[in-house]
Amino acid sequence: MKKHIYYNGNIVTLDPSLPRAEALLVEEGRVAAVGSTEEILLQAGQAGVTRTDLEGAYVYPGLTDSHLHLMGHGIKLSLLDLSDIRSKEELLREVGKRARATPEGKWVLGLNWDENRFPTPEPPTRQELDRIAPHQPVMLTRVCHHVQAVNTAAFEAAGISRETPDPPDGTFGRDERGELTGLVYENASQVFMAAVPPRTLAERKEWTRVAAREALAKGLTGVHTEDLRSAESVDALIHIYRGLIEEGTRLRTHHLVYHPYLPSFREAGLAFGSGDHWFRFGAVKLFADGSFGGRTALLSCPYADDPSTCGFAVHEQEKLEALVQEAREAGMPVAVHAIGDGAADQVLQALEKHPLPTGAAPDRLIHGQVLRRDLLDRMARLPLAVDVQPRFVASDFPWAADRLPAALLPTSYAWKSIVQRGIPAGGGSDAPIEPIDPLLGIHAAVTRRPPEAADHPGYIPEQKLTPYEALWIYTVGSALAAGEETERGRLQPGKYADLSVFDRDLLSGDPDALLEAKALMTVVNGTVAYRV
Q1: pLDDT at res. 1
Q2: How far is it, in rounded angstroms, from Cα 346 to Cα 276?
Q3: Is residue 493 a contact partner of residue 34, using CB atoms and an 8 Å limit?
Q4: Of these four, 84, 142, 235, 269, which has the most CB atoms within 10 Å of its CB?
Q5: Are 431 and 65 in contact (CB under 8 A)?
Q6: Which residues are CB-neighbours of 426 under 8 A, at least 6 positions away?
Q7: CA gap 142, 149 in Å, rounded
Q8: pLDDT, position 75
Q9: Is the dihedral of CA 410, 416, 419, 421 positive or negative?
Q10: Other C-beta atoms lying within 10 Å of the C-beta of residue 532
Q11: Do 255 and 242 contact (CB within 8 A), yes or no?
């Protein structure tokens, strides 16, 4: 039986019966024993057992990102990234450079612009994009991925004109004269996505490979991802991820099933839990609303900075309930994107009407950014986990405080309220929307401010998590959300030997030390998957 000892470390186990240790013994990919260096070496340090001296490094249960788009993160690394753009003029300049380097008729694709970071918060218009790229279709995806900015050539390539009606689950932005503005909301973007020439399977695999390697380098041992829309088929998704495992990319992946793919998923004989400990399918992914930044998140009352709208429901209540029922017929939980409190209310109604079978993995509320106390109380009574993205606080404030109705602010980005009610919460990044680095998420959970604002007391400071709570949501919380708490989340005998090893204490009293911390080693299934 293959054995390996990791010793001479500062190990945080998250096991209440043995919170701290110095060493652990791994057998066949699982933790076999945990204790002091002296105990473990005495117990199993015989000839033939390999050893790794941790040299005093700090070891934690494998960090897991509970919600991201791994393939999308790889796409971000390959396309025009507009994350650091701070004005419309700079955005147009960078897109213009890319257009001049792009052959006529070829698409110019960009990601992650955010007008809320501009001195004047105005998105690019169709006419402005036409001026800098008259001969190439342009599609720029907003940081929330719920709004696109396109030019006239893109409308022509997609077959959209002034007379084209809005689809039922999205809208084409129009001015007071009915002319297309160039903004595209929600699933109205699908016709533009379809007009972009398809990428090869090899390109998709490379996106995934690059993103997986970066995740491991940041100390992540696993991710919960939703990639079917990027892979474009269940078969392609399986081919890509199985291929990476065979190549030796040792990152655990748990996959949500976007609901339009559920029929083909079932036809392939797949179900919740299909796969193995490296690659596994999870809940059915649904959308209830849009984004806060694009004012398409559904609120129960009008936006403070635009009283003409409460946001956008992706589905009528009856349709949402029918989709939940369809998942139940497949024996599956659901994972529903809901940012606004109006959307969360719709989701809870659907879950209450169609409860999970006893013993099933929990349903998941993805984001849950804007809630109310009555919603939190209802959530606590359901078999429900919440996938939270603490980094959103650092990105969305201060403009979020002006956009939110005052009555909703105290229970917005309310990670502490969720944890205090005993609702399982998994910590994630929503990469490529936010950086994939889990330490930035932990820092935001603890400080409630951007890294550079060291003197800021934090936005809605009563919702700050302790360092221990922040670590918990990226370990135990993520395991609970996936129904995998018997396999991972803590370092205790019987669980997989997934370790995130850092150069300093993540639970120290100085949260800004997290910004300097480096992953020294990432161990998955007892084997080193990344080392500095």
Answers
A1: 64
A2: 33
A3: yes
A4: 142
A5: yes
A6: 64, 66, 67, 224, 364, 385, 386, 387, 388, 473, 474, 477, 478, 480, 481, 482
A7: 8
A8: 87
A9: negative
A10: 10
A11: no
| Spacing of C-alpha 51 from chain mean position | 35
Residue 403: strand, helix, or coil: helix
What are the Cα distances from residue 187, in Å, to 113, 193, 226, 290, 357? 18, 10, 16, 10, 31
Residue type, 432: P
Task: State the Cα–Cα distance between residues 359 and 229, nearest whole angstrom.
Answer: 30
pLDDT in tens, 29-66: 999 999 999 999 998 878 889 999 999 999 999 999 99
Provide the 3-class DSSP secondary structure of residue 280. Answer: strand
d(CA 437, CA 447): 16
Residues 6+ apart with CB under 8 A from 163: none
3-state secondary structure at position 139: strand
Sheet with 50-53: list strands edge to edge.
30-35, 23-27, 3-7, 50-53
Count how many residues are written for the chain: 532
Q: Please, which residues bridge with residue 288 across strands?
A: none
Residues of the chain with pLDDT under 70: 1
φ, ψ of residue 282 to 5 degrees: the values are -120, -130
Structure tokens at 280: 């596994």
**What was the pLDDT predicted at 79?**
85
Contact 494, 31 (CB under 8 A): yes
Q: Which two tokens stand for residue 317?
A: 């209540």
Task: Compute the distance between CA of residue 475 and CA of residue 489 in angstroms, rounded to an integer.
Answer: 5
pTM of the predicted structure, to 2 decimals = 0.86
Q: Judge contact between 48 and 411, C-beta under 8 A.
A: no
Angle in degrees, CA 78, 83, 87, rounded to 5: 130
CB 453 within 8 A of CB 394: no
Query: Which residues make beta-bridge pairs with 80?
Result: 110
Cis peptide before 432 (omega within 30 of 0): yes
The tokens of 359 are what?
A: 């013993």
